[in-house]
Design brief:
Elements (H helix, E strand, L loop, with lengths): L6 H5 L4 H12 L19 E5 L32 H13 L4 E5 L9 H9 L5 E6 L4 H11 L3 E5 L5 H8 L5 H14 L5 E6 L8 H8 L5 E6 L17 H11 L2 E3 L10 E5 L5 E5 L12 E4 L4 E3 L8 E2 L1 H5 L4 H13 L5 H4 L12 H4 L2
Parallel strand pairs: 1-2, 1-10, 2-3, 3-4, 4-5, 5-6, 6-9
Antiparallel strand pairs: 7-8, 8-9, 10-11, 11-12
Helix pairs in contact: 2-11, 3-4, 3-11, 4-5, 5-7
This protein binds S-adenosylmethionine and iron/sulfur cluster (SF4) (2 copies).
Length: about 375
Amino acid sequence: MSTIIPLTDVRGARQASALDAFVREAARSANPDPALPVDTLGRQLQDLRISVTDRCNFRCVYCMPKDVYGRDFPFLAHSELLSFEEIARIAGVFVRQGVRKIRLTGGEPLLRRNVERLVEMLARLGDVDLTLTTNGALLARKARSLRDAGLRRVTVSLDALDDPTFRAMNDVDFPVQRVLEGIDAAQAAGLAPIKINAVIKRGMNEHAIVPLARHFHGSGHILRFIEFMDVGHTNGWQMEHVVSAAEIVATVSREFPLEPAEPNYSGEVAERWRYRDDGGEIGVIASVTQAFCRDCTRARLSTEGKLYTCLFANAGYDLRALLREDFSDDQIGNAIAAIWRRRADRYSEMRSAETPRSQKIEMSYIGG
Ligand code: SAM
Ligand code: SF4
Ligand code: SF4
């Protein structure tokens, strides 16, 4: 029996009407500012994460707990999703507003039928770094066709190497071997360097840290450990479940000494650490213990076309309405720019025990 969570809570529909009015007014603005948008904290719009489905074949305990996302969970109907044509069109508008990096995500993006066709359409946008985050379950089957469609790189989530822990984390009894085969297929297809994301939740998989490091040491793949985050409000997050990035670095370093490495670019989310023995590098994403809002240049487009300016937002701006009505690309661009210019989000920096958790949007819907 699933816990009943009102959809308004999962998708933040309650706050929508005021934002919708803002979006329309901004789209129709008579004198739009032609400069690329910069938000109230001086951050540019550079990255776009597009959720292509709110469905998933896993039920990771930290993301889509089974007792909430049960058989009767009301996922979005197909007509509510943005079509590939709509996604490609809006992605083009975002690119004209400064976006240089697009990541397809979800839910599980490889569950969206013919996602390769979308990749092909987005690859035509030109000078954009196009990538995708997947749980890897379908990657062995799809790596080659994704690469042929124009995907350049892939990030694979993998929280443990030992089968019992991996099966307990995904909570659908999915074997780790199939994900490892997906990673091999991605490498063979040329989707490299591959990033491997591991969320560490205390009491579940902190013992997986060193084996993961050992496995990917010297492989050319970049392992990134992610602190368990308080996204949404269904995953039962508590601070004591967070294993800090500092603890993770110390744990790996005891086995394979590490030294800090310079960021690849300003605003890089993962803090880089290099193995002293030339075995490559790892990253840690310290979203809880060392917030990086100051450099956050990411926007998120939900499966049904709402724009969120923060992973922890409690409402989004409905761009699908503009796409499905008679608004031009320039007008939609005006709306996106105006939304970005009023952005003041810095949730992780402000996070405190008092932060209300009841209205945040779920990660599987907004796109991780
Ligand atoms: N299904 C795909 C996957 O798992 O790679 C893409 C979507 S998933 C929401 C994107 C990323 O978010 C994954 O790497 C996942 O581990 C991470 N994630 C989900 N819930 C999280 C949480 N509560 N804290 C930290 N990371 C989380
Ligand atoms: Fe699915 Fe990814 Fe969430 Fe796991 S983290 S439940 S694979 S969307
Ligand atoms: Fe960006 Fe929001 Fe995360 Fe801060 S909390 S880094 S603003 S998504």
